[in-house]
TrEMBL record:
<keyword id="KW-0479">Metal-binding</keyword>
<protein>
    <recommendedName>
        <fullName>Superoxide dismutase [Cu-Zn]</fullName>
        <ecNumber>1.15.1.1</ecNumber>
    </recommendedName>
</protein>
<feature type="domain" description="Superoxide dismutase copper/zinc binding">
    <location>
        <begin position="40"/>
        <end position="171"/>
    </location>
</feature>
<dbReference type="InterPro" id="IPR036423">
    <property type="entry name" value="SOD-like_Cu/Zn_dom_sf"/>
</dbReference>
<comment type="function">
    <text>Destroys radicals which are normally produced within the cells and which are toxic to biological systems.</text>
</comment>
<keyword id="KW-0862">Zinc</keyword>
<keyword id="KW-0186">Copper</keyword>
<comment type="similarity">
    <text>Belongs to the Cu-Zn superoxide dismutase family.</text>
</comment>
<keyword id="KW-0560">Oxidoreductase</keyword>
<dbReference type="GO" id="GO:0005507">
    <property type="term" value="F:copper ion binding"/>
</dbReference>
<dbReference type="InterPro" id="IPR024134">
    <property type="entry name" value="SOD_Cu/Zn_/chaperone"/>
</dbReference>
<dbReference type="InterPro" id="IPR018152">
    <property type="entry name" value="SOD_Cu/Zn_BS"/>
</dbReference>
<dbReference type="GO" id="GO:0004784">
    <property type="term" value="F:superoxide dismutase activity"/>
</dbReference>
<dbReference type="InterPro" id="IPR001424">
    <property type="entry name" value="SOD_Cu_Zn_dom"/>
</dbReference>
<dbReference type="Pfam" id="PF00080">
    <property type="entry name" value="Sod_Cu"/>
</dbReference>
Amino acid sequence: MKKYLFFALVAAIGLTSCDKEDKELARATLNRTNDGSSVIGVAKFFDAGDGKIRMALRIDFADRADSTVAVHFHEHGDCGNMGENAHGHWNPTKEAHGKWGSGSYHSGDIGNIELDAKGQGEIIVTTDRWSIANGDAKSIIGRGIIVHGGTDDYKTQPTGNSGPRIGCGVIEAIK
Ligand SMILES: [Cu+2]
Ligand SMILES: [Zn+2]
């Protein structure tokens, strides 16, 4: 009986440490491109261990209720000029544009996110394609995140024909 209690205690401590939230490394607050101030989402980046980073991206954009938006990381962390200053898709591995997890895709090709009747949607991505290390080609710090008003066809080069840039944010390290 004592032995059983001991193992139950060990198991409980193990679960508690697994439940502990991973360390937040970086964050991007997404704003509308047309006024640059209304928040329409947030992307949080966590240390997922094993050299991986986990992103939890949440969009809350009432004007886009019941629609699908496309999300990518773009090269520059500059949301000016309706998001155009972010330039093209960030592409450190020199691959073709595509669907996340397919044969070839850009390291920030998050893809389409369905928004519900409130305009809310969420996606979680865990990958070793990202880092926050200074000077690392994989570093996501200072990149732009663009939310598009259309859907990504995962084919058209190099953009996925995803439509206008309706939201934008810059990935910043958590100090
Ligand atoms: Cu894009
Ligand atoms: Zn792309």
